[in-house]
């Protein structure tokens, strides 16, 4: 699998793959992986490189004219990152993107879940809701995605209780209001505590038909004169090297902001942008509005944490851990016309946490040697009990914590005016910046409040200490509602059968443009509340299966038998490879 940096190529180089995948993040790499060792030549085009480079990351800039915005007396909840990743809370809204092989997995924590059955339904109170497929039909692809992500079985609801080694206690919460919900965390196979990094997937993607081109930003898509097929892609490196790609098939895997931006900025044939004849590209922008719902006093943390923690499941000789939380039931969503949302526990560990101290000592971290030794030596009973929980009960470690709160991520009711357009400002490549106008509507706010109040009431009814609701929820003051984005932009090139409300069809092909496909969260018809990675990879595998069928049906004569790079200036004889 050759990896070539565009900066090393002569200006004017032309590449002729069968399939051009724009974006070397988890979605693009998954599609390439599924196409590996086939007869089609695949070129992965990545704007970044193998390592972080500031010049390339600067291309993530946006003009933000929507939420989240600063309000007097309202403190932003941030994205909730802690420890070594806390700096991610300071990245501007919609700029937390990673240009580089592996994409978003450079800075994720591995959190995964699939969408619920209700997320796929046409819900009368949510305009343009409904998926062109069922959750059941997507199950095989999701299971394949889970294996790639090194996850356990794809169960995220009460069905897990019968499979967990030592499940949470049945708490008597009203199932008409709240349902159990679980998340898994994707880890490297040889590093249990390290989230899975798709840079390794790229490095292991060794196949004779796969090539990777780095530091290659696609600046425009050009259609043929009919406007029905892609003719070429313009490429540019950060230091100005220009090149061209002439593919048979293109798959955009650049993310929820960049997929829309690239279609809108490609105006050489269609002045309003590709796929935008009905002014839909970039509309329906959704994210996962995040906020804090409630918090327990420090003295009550252990009482609650034992029920909302990590729980193990033995699968193929490996213990997989699932985080226990709660979501609004489908019944209350339908009855009260709310969106889907889920609450998950967040513990902030004390500086005197014995397990953290022991971990630092074991890895030779001497920055707090004296205090860590004192904490570890002084906590034998605590460490023994934690070891028993982990090894025998297969539950999450016990920690000494200063904070236990429940945070929420909510689905959004789609709004056509929540959107990505093009700014008058331009990046270093001369491409207009994305102008992001994210809106959070009253349905999301009411759903989050309903979840918070239901949680509080059910905790008290079941004998738990009363939690402290977030101030704005306790005061019922929506003007003080505090949300932030979670860097999960979606729905900007949504999937559907009606071009008046969608950009791609049920096979993820742009309406009216043969051979131009889009993948990733931008094609979600609705965003759900779950972290998007598992769902995006399930859809990517589904698309790869479709592409394999499509390529098999096409005449061999119409497919370029090998990837050709030739210098446009002198038009020399073609050469193999990169």
From TrEMBL:
Keywords for the protein's UniProt record, in alphabetical order: FAD, Flavoprotein, Oxidoreductase
A Pfam family annotated for this UniProt entry: DAO
Start and end residues of each FAD dependent oxidoreductase domain: 18-256
InterPro entries: FAD-dep_OxRdtase, FAD/NAD-bd_sf, GMC_OxRtase_C, P2Ox-like
TM ranges: none
Residue ranges annotated for the Glucose-methanol-choline oxidoreductase C-terminal domain, each copy included: 416-540
Cofactor(s) listed: FAD
GO MF term set: oxidoreductase activity, acting on CH-OH group of donors
Keyword hit for Nuclease: no
Membership in a protein family: Belongs to the GMC oxidoreductase family.
The protein's name in its UniProt record: GMC family oxidoreductase
Lineage: Bacteria, Pseudomonadati, Pseudomonadota, Alphaproteobacteria, Hyphomicrobiales
């Amino acid at each position: 699998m050759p990896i070539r940096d565009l900066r090393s190529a002569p200006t004017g180089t032309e590449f002729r793959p069968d399939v051009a995948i724009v974006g070397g993040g988890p979605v693009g790499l998954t599609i390439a992986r599924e196409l590996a060792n086939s007869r089609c030549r695949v070129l992965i085009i990545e704007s970044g490189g193998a390592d972080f480079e500031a010049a390339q990351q600067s291309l993530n800039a946006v003009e933000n004219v929507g939420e989240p915005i600063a309000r007097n007396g309202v403190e932003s909840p941030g994205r909730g990152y802690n420890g070594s990743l806390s700096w991610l809370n300071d990245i501007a809204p919609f700029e937390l993107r990673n240009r580089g092989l592996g994409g978003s997995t450079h800075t994720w924590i591995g959190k995964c879940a699939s969408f619920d059955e209700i997320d796929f339904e046409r819900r009368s109170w949510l305009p343009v809701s409904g998926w062109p497929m069922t959750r059941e039909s997507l199950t095989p692809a999701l299971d394949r995605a889970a294996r790639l992500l090194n996850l356990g079985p794809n169960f995220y609801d009460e069905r897990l209780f019968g499979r967990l080694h030592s499940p949470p206690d049945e708490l008597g919460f009203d199932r008409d209001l709240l349902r159990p919900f679980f998340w898994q965390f994707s880890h490297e196979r040889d590093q249990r505590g390290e989230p899975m990094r798709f840079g390794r997937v790229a490095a292991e993607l060794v196949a004779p038909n796969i090539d990777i081109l780095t530091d290659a930003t696609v600046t425009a898509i050009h259609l043929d004169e009919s406007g029905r097929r892609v003719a070429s892609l313009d490429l540019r490196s950060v230091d100005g090297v220009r090149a061209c790609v002439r593919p048979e098939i293109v798959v955009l895997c650049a993310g929820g902001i960049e997929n829309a931006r690239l279609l809108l900025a490609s105006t050489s044939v269609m002045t309003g942008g590709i796929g935008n004849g009905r002014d839909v590209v970039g509309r329906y922008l959704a994210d996962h509005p995040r906020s804090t719902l409630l918090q327990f006093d420090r003295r009550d943390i252990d009482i609650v944490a034992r029920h909302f923690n990590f729980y193990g499941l033995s699968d193929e000789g490996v213990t997989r851990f699932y985080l226990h939380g709660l979501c609004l039931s489908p019944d209350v969503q339908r009855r009260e016309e709310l969106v889907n949302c889920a609450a998950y526990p967040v513990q902030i560990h004390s500086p005197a946490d014995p397990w953290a101290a022991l971990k630092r000592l074991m890895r030779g971290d001497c920055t707090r040697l004296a205090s860590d030794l004192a904490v570890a030596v002084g906590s034998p009973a605590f460490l023994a009990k934690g070891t028993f929980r982990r090894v025998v009960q297969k539950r999450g470690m016990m920690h000494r914590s200063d904070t236990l709160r429940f945070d929420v991520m909510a689905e959004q009711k789609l709004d056509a005016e929540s959107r990505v357009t093009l700014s008058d400002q331009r990046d270093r490549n001369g491409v207009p910046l994305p102008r992001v106008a994210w809106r959070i509507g009253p349905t999301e706010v009411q759903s989050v409040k309903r979840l918070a109040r239901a949680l509080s009431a059910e905790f008290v009814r079941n004998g738990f200490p009363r939690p402290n609701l977030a101030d704005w929820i306790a005061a019922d003051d929506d003007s003080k509602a505090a949300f932030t984005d979670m860097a999960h932009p979606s729905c900007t090139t949504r999937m559907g059968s009606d071009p008046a409300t969608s950009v791609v069809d049920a096979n993820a092909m742009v309406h009216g443009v043969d051979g131009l496909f889009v993948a990733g969260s931008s094609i979600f018809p609705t965003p759900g509340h779950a972290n998007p990675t598992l769902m995006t990879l399930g859809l990517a595998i589904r698309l790869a299966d479709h592409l394999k069928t499509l390529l098999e049906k096409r005449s061999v004569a119409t497919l370029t038998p090998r990837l050709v790079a030739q210098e446009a200036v002198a038009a020399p004889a073609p050469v193999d490879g990169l």
